[in-house]
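Consider the following input, taken from an annotated entry for Transmembrane protein 199 (Salarias fasciatus).
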Amino acid sequence: MASAFVVGDKFRKKVRELLEDSENSGNSDSCLPETLRGELIQLLDSPETVTLSFSTARQLKKYLQDAGHPFYLHELLEDSVLHLPEVVKPPRNPELIARLEKIKAKLANEEYNKITRNVNTQEIQRNGTLADFGRDVRSAKAVVVTVFNFLVTVVATFACSYMGSQYLFTETTARVISAVIAASVVGLAELYVLVRTMEGELGEP
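Applying the prediction step yields:
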């Protein structure tokens, strides 16, 4: 918060004139108070940046009003600026910094868990292992074996029926028809058993 003015050359010039007039004047009413005179002289003698405190400025204003001078304080301060002291930041508390870092890490961990909530690593591992590949191969092998057995059974039934029907039929056409009928019946039976087995593996009634 500002508490002083950084005065310019105009202020210096006017104050010097004011001090000279006060010294040359014989009227005691127009003389500067000793305290105010000392502060103004000290300001003018300072080689560094001159700052005029608000309290000194109020005393100078009161003097100008009481003495009836033809200029006012704001005229003296036309080329002056407010003096804003440098803000010194207090050192940060190490415990507070550590606590803030802990809170940040906790929030980041919660955000990560929220993002990866629907990701099932066990499911990924289970679906991506060599054991799954081996299980798929065994399933495919079982299907191939089942189909092969089905074909062998149908062909064998046809052959047996054709060979055995020679004792019942003398014509080749009748023997072929009887063999086809027997193979069809056995094939349908095998197909029914196969379908029921697959339904049982899938958990269907």
